[in-house]
Design a protein that fits this description.
Length: 320
């Protein structure tokens, strides 16, 4: 295996492609208007804890400079981010129910995202790890066409693409190593209510691994001959779930890139790490929780999660 990271020769390089957005979000605990968000932004913030990600995205004049500065300070490479002069950034607005388990998208304005065809800077093309966040599957395909020597690609998607762009999405799934989906998306893709059967059906579509995100109930990692499941980190105070899935993905790809390894042991660790970093995301609106998260707290939560899933072997002798 060859390693070629600028700072640490043991790191594999990673590229993250996706939305960079302004979000307006309302939850039972408050509301924010036009704050920084977007799948690539959440994922890059999370991944940057582990290794410096390269981001591919598009923004307008209105995207906050402070957010770009924060990302740069954390080592994120933004040379793949296109700023369209006079353009407006992707805008999304959503409202959550009382349990924070369901959300309605109120507004989705594509703006500069609409005609965007990402061109990866030459230096990005040999990135060994890639996260294709939720975007039009045709755009995901065009990124896949530009990558060389990539050893591990993870993709996300959403119900809209499953319904409206199935052919292109099937092509994406046939070319990625891991599909990261929530439980409803797995059922929708496979057209079956049973999650175990649905995950098997998604594996038949191409990826070697499927990660099923179940919100507050945790996540499962599934392969043909492997199943791993982990609860979410228990939190007394959840404020806004926006970006949890993308932070989870960023944590996963960051860990794989940091160790330059995508074996099953490492993937389990990546799912646990993703779970922990997502817990920080949901404690505040926008990027507040991820920005505040320190190394000590991250470590404490990771160790606590390990304790939570530990249990003793059963003593079977003497049972009827
Ligand atoms: P998550 O909560 O992990 O599903 O991600 C929420 C983020 O995804 C928000 O910051 C939004 O800006 C972004 N988002 C919402 N809808 C879309 C979409 N159709 N395409 C790309 N990004 C989106």
């Amino acid at each position: 295996m060859t390693h070629s990271s600028g700072t640490d020769p043991t790191m594999g390089e990673m590229v993250i492609v996706g939305s960079m957005a302004l979000d307006s979000v309302k939850t039972p605990f408050g509301a924010v208007d036009r704050v920084a968000g977007g799948a690539a932004v959440y994922a890059a913030m999370a991944a940057s804890v582990l290794a410096p990600p390269r981001v591919v995205g598009v923004i307008g004049d209105d995207f906050p400079d402070e957010t770009l500065a924060t990302l740069r300070e954390r080592g994120v490479d933004l040379s793949g981010v296109e700023r369209v002069p006079g353009g407006k950034s992707f805008y999304w607005s959503g409202v959550y129910d009382y349990s924070l388990g369901e959300r309605d998208s109120l507004v989705t304005e594509l703006n500069v995202f609409a005609d965007w065809r990402p061109v990866l800077p030459e230096a990005y093309r040999s990135s060994r790890y890639c996260f294709l966040a939720n975007i039009q599957p045709q755009v995901q395909l065009s990124v896949l066409d530009q990558l060389q020597d990539t050893c591990f690609v993870m993709c996300d998607t959403m119900n809209y693409w499953i319904e409206h762009e199935r052919e292109a999405l099937d092509q994406v799934l046939s070319r990625v190593d891991l599909a990261l989906l929530n439980d409803a998306e797995v059922r929708q893709l496979a057209d079956t209510p049973n999650l175990a059967q649905a995950a098997d059906a998604v594996l038949e579509m191409g990826p070697k691994w499927v990660v099923i995100k179940k919100g507050e109930y945790g996540a499962a990692l599934v392969a043909r001959d492997e199943y791993f499941s982990i609860p979410s980190y228990p939190l007394p105070n959840v404020v806004d779930p926006t970006g949890a899935g993308d932070s989870f993905a960023g944590g996963m790809i960051g860990l794989l890139a940091r160790h330059d390894d995508c074996c099953s042991r490492e993937l389990r660790r990546a799912v646990a790490f993703g779970t922990v970093i997502a817990s920080a995301c949901v404690e505040d609106f926008s990027l507040g929780g991820l920005e505040r998260l320190g190394n000590g707290e991250l470590r404490r939560r990771y160790d606590e999660l390990r304790e939570i899933v530990r249990f003793e072997a059963m003593e079977w002798e003497g049972l009827v």
